[in-house]
Amino acid sequence: MDDVELIFDHVGIPTDDKQPDEDWVESTRVWVTNPRNHKYRVEFLRFEPDTPCKWEVVNLPHVAYRVKAEDFPKLLEGVEILIEPFEVDENLTIAYVKKNGMPVEYMVFKDPDLWFGKRSEDDE
Predict the structure, then answer these.
(1) 3-state secondary structure at position 73
(2) CB-based contacts of 71: which residues, under 8 Å, 6+ apart?
(3) How confident is the model at residue 121 (pLDDT cuts 50, 70, 90)?
(4) How far is the C-alpha of 67 from the C-alpha of 15, rounded, in Å?
(5) What average pLDDT does the chain have?
(6) Pairing state of beta strands 42-47 and 7-14?
(7) Would the pLDDT of 85 be above 80?
(8) 59-84 burial by CB neighbour count: b if 16+ within 10 A, else e?
(9) Is 124 part of any domain?
(10) Statement: residue 116 has pLDDT above 50
(11) Which residue in 54, 86, 84, 63 sits closest to 13, CA to CA?
(12) 50: three-class secondary structure by DSSP
């Protein structure tokens, strides 16, 4: 996959503690924070008890990369998929895979400066 460009987006850290300015993702039953509003690009994830997500996603940190839409299918070939591709909202499609024993998130943005319909604080 030398021809696939991975752009670091954030590190995701699961938490049990409510965070300021969380956004809700219904399909995975998780509250998330905007990593662009954190000095070290950290996203906190607070899963509801009835989340359909696999153990690795709920309990382990993950690294997330922005990818091009045309590269997205290539990145999902021949790897263990933890979360099948889905649209978080009209701007973002994601999938989680298992790489080297850890969750990795691939993100396809239409506009990478938008997070749940809002401009990031560092973009304002």
Answers:
(1) helix
(2) 4, 5
(3) low
(4) 26
(5) 94
(6) parallel
(7) yes
(8) ebebebbbbeeebbeebeeeeeebbe
(9) no
(10) yes
(11) 63
(12) coil
- Please state, in angstroms and rounded to a whole number, the distance separating the CA atoms of residues 25 and 8: 21
Quote the domain boundaries for residue 111.
Answer: 7-115
In Å, how far from its chain's centre is CA 61?
Answer: 11
1 falls within a domain: no
Return the CATH number at 20. 3.10.180.10
Q: pLDDT (tens digit, 9 = 90+) per residue, 2-49?
A: 689 999 999 999 999 999 999 999 999 999 999 999 999 999 999 999
Q: Is 48 helix (H, G, I), strand (E, B) or coil?
A: coil
Number of domains in the chain: 1
Q: Which residues lie closer than 8 Å to 62 by C-beta, 6 or more apart?
A: 11, 12, 96, 102, 103, 104, 105
Instruction: Find out whether 95 and 108 touch, Cβ atoms under 8 Å.
Output: no
- Which H or E element spans position 103? strand 102-109
Residue 121 domain-assigned (yes or no):
no
